[in-house]
Amino acid sequence: MTEERYKQAAAGAWIGIAGNLALALLKGVTGYMANSKALMADAFHSASDVVGSVAVLAGLRAAKKPPDEDHPYGHGKAEPIAAIVLSVLLLVVGVEIGISAVKSIYGGVHEPPEGFALTVLILSIIVKEAMFQYKFRLGKKLASQALIANAWEHRSDVYSSIAAFIGVGGAMLGSYFGIAYLYYLDPIAGLVVAVMVLRMGYRLLMDSVHSTMDHVLHQEDAADLLETVQRIKGVIAVDQLRAREHGHYVIVDVKISVNPRISIQEGHDIAKIVKLTLMKRFLHVSDVFVHVNPYDAGYPYKSTDSEPDDMPTLLH
What are the residue ranges spanned by the domains of the chain? Predict the structure, then answer.
């Protein structure tokens, strides 16, 4: 991870920590004063975001470390691991919120929440949507799985605040029209929030686990890499190209064929150009391993009418 990338990602994480902490305190205090189970559940959701943002920040710092003897390919997988921590946290919080809501429904609801809870929920929806847009775009720009996961957690908080708004609003309408059973909409909304949190946590967990495993990019995703190598002077053919994801970046393994009559030094120079070209043009490519083969016109899927001396090299 470059220093500039780390600074931008860390700034996004700190904004998430500050924003979520403020919202969690505001919704928690307001939910307690307004006697709203839905708002209290939403406050716990925002509190989980605080811990999640801290996990993201820790992952970013780990990913920033350079390769070492134990981690020759770098620490890029620290980010999806941080996203896994966040996902598990969401699942735990979802279960806790659900249990609390069920207890409230079973115990009975005798009065609706206070009206000022709606104002706080509207503010929460606006702030969390703004945070989602900022984090999601930053995560895409920096190719950070942890930031993207954290952004979707903000979006889930928007949905939970909307559900809480409906629950609180419905309970207040029940008070206005004298319909006592509408009071249950508040804890029911808390239960809906719990289900939404569990669903989001499960989805993020599956995506994060997938990102921690090395997997080869699909052919269409690696097409630009292949085309770039084929255009490099001295490369007669690309025998094989595999690009595998390693955390937020990509490692490329490529086999190229060159003129069999050139020197070892020329072959080495061509391989070096291939590596530097890919790493310079594609910022998400962190390393390239190049294997140089002598071109064989009789090799399957290859054909040429050129004599060896007519084949391209770095010298002509």
Answer: 3-213, 216-310
- 215-244 pLDDT, tens digit per residue, is 566 666 688 899 999 999 999 999 999 888
Query: Measured between alpha carbons, how far is 194 from 104 in angstroms, rounded to an integer?
Result: 14
Which residues on adjacent β-strands are paired with residue 250? 245, 285
Three-state SS at 263: coil
Q: What is the pTM of this model?
A: 0.56
Beta bridge partners of 253: 242, 289
Same fold, 3-213 and 216-310: no
Where does residue 110 rank: exposed (0-12), middle (13-18), buried (19+ CB within 10 A)? Answer: exposed
CA 30 – CA 114 distance, rounded (Å): 9
CATH code that applies to domain 3-213? 1.20.1510.10
Cβ-in-10-Å burial (0-12, 13-18, 19+) of 51 comes to middle
Spatial separation of the C-alpha atoms in residues 104 and 266, rounded to whole Å: 76
Domain 216-310, CATH class in plain words: alpha beta
Distances (CA, A) of 250 to 73, 215, 229, 234, 292: 10, 10, 16, 24, 21
